[in-house]
Amino acid sequence: MTTTLITGAYKSLGLETARRLIAAGHSVIIGARKFAAPVIVNVSSGMGSFGMTHDPDRVESQYALPLYSTSKAAVTMLTAQYARELPDVRINAADPGQTATDFTGGLGRSVAEGAESIVALATIGPDGPTGQFIDRNGTLPW
Fold first, then answer.
1. Do 40 and 93 touch, CB atoms closer than 8 A?
2. Which pLDDT score, from 0 to 100, does residue 118 have?
3. pLDDT at 65 over 90
């Protein structure tokens, strides 16, 4: 079956839609704004960073991936803008770094290491950073 993401599913139309889709055998992911300490982590990349792709000491400067890089720059900017718009939500972008996946042909750090920055941001408290671009070593330029 299909997996469906429903935003605003904590009441009314969204909730009823979720109930019906679950009854029909769908997997449903529910998103809502009514959480105690909401956190959003967007997965971005140093490949979308002007600072990192123009630094000859960085691995990101060794590749020309215009479509991928453009999309990741957009993800990071979207993160910054949503963080300004939604100050009660911790919204950050994580850079897992070059990680050994199908996309990289198995090059890079382990998947477990790549997940570190994502998990760290997903588990921050309500006083944690927001609107940041972060890898496992800290804040990144972009």
1. no
2. 92
3. no
N residues, the chain: 142
List, for residues 66-104, the tens digit of each pLDDT value.
898 899 999 999 999 999 999 999 999 999 988 888 877
As a whole number of angstroms, the distance between CA 30 and CA 14 comes to 9
Spatial separation of the C-alpha atoms in residues 27 and 25, rounded to whole Å: 7
Helix-strand-coil percent breakdown of the chain, rounded to 5? 40, 20, 45
Report the CATH number of the 37-139 domain: 3.40.50.720
The pLDDT of residue 32 is above 70: no
Q: Please state, in angstroms and rounded to a whole number, the distance separating the CA atoms of residues 115 and 43.
A: 10
Q: Residue ranges of the domains in the chain?
A: 1-34, 37-139
Residue with tokens 């997996």: 3
> What's the distance, CA 45 to chain centroid?
10
**Would the pLDDT of 1 be above 90?**
no
Identify the helix (H) or strand (E) that includes residue 71: helix 66-85
